[in-house]
Amino acid sequence: MTNEVQTKVDKLYNEVCSSVEQGAFPHGVLVECQNERDGELFARFIANCLVCRGHNKPCGVCQDCIKAQGKGHPDIFETDGKKGKSNTFSVDAVRDVRDDAFIVPNESDKKIYILKNGQNMNEQAQNAILKILEEPPSYVFFVIVTTSKSTMLETVLSRVQVFSLLSDEEQITDKELAIVKNMVTAILNVNEIDLMEQTAVFLKNNQLAKTILGLLTEVFRDALVKKSGFERDFRFMQESEKVSNSLTAKSLMQLITVCDDLIKSIDRNCNNNLLVVRMCYEFKRAMGR
Ligand SMILES: [Zn+2]
């Protein structure tokens, strides 16, 4: 971790402490972190703060803290949702968590569920978790750990507070995320009007265009990987899946080339108007229209 990221993460740890002290901690949080171990440590810290009965949470000396730190607290649950050989976070695992959540806590006055590998939750699993995030029992707290918030459905994101342990470069802003999602839909539907609407913001900001083209490349590349049968963690899981199901490998490769060419012309300081026009035209062409 760089110093800059470390300072940011330290701040987040403090934010958790004070929010728990004030009794204002949200029932659903998402921890965004590229490094699985760091994300899980942060999630366990949240759980520890929530069960601590001392002052200056986590006090480190109360029975709850001792049990939480020894990973033996009966009201803190961790799961990666894997069932059998599959790597995905299964919908059955989410249902187990949901059923368990309605049973009152054992020792603490709270129950915390740490859901690891959030990036491996498919749409069905996320919709299942959404149901309980909408109306959780008053004593229940969910901490979802994922590599990027872009792996989550917008409906889930609207129900959680995001704690991002990513550096500024790694982090995708809400604005960028929305543009990528909308552009993927517009490209798949070959909807020229939507495409023009989404790309209009690039007229005044070609660096944003460059970022978005980079993210789109990631979506198309991951879709191609998915097509060849490889399953791994994709940052834009839903988008990559949609694109992979709808497009041929040939179209995907064309789209990747288009993004690459457009990024090169931004680096050559091309005219922004021309860039946007070309972008719409080239995407349409790659889609065979
Ligand atoms: Zn304590």
Q: Provide the list of bound ligands, each named once.
A: zinc ion
The helix-strand sequence is HEHHEHEHEHEHHHHHH
Coarse structural class: alpha/beta
Number of helices: 12
State the CATH topology of the largest domain: Rossmann fold
Q: Output mean pLDDT.
A: 92
For the record, what CATH class of the largest domain applies? Alpha Beta
Q: How many β-strands, per DSSP? A: 5
Shape: elongated
Alpha-carbon distance between the termini?
46 Å
Instruction: Please state the second-level CATH architecture of the largest domain.
Output: 3-Layer(aba) Sandwich
The biggest beta sheet, please? 5 strands, parallel
Report on this model:
The protein contains twelve helices and five strands. Helix 4 (91-101) links the parallel strand 2 and strand 3 (111-115). The chain is elongated and about 65 Å long. Helix 4 (91-101) packs parallel to helix 5 (123-134), helix 7 (174-188) runs antiparallel to helix 8 and helix 9 (206-227) packs antiparallel against helix 11 (249-267). It is α/β, with parallel strands linked by helices. The model has no long low-confidence stretch (mean pLDDT 92). 55% of the residues lie in helices and 9% in strands. The chain has two domains: 3-164, Rossmann fold; 174-286, Zinc Finger, Delta Prime, domain 3. Zinc ion (ZN) is lined by residues 52-54, 58-59, 62, 64-65.
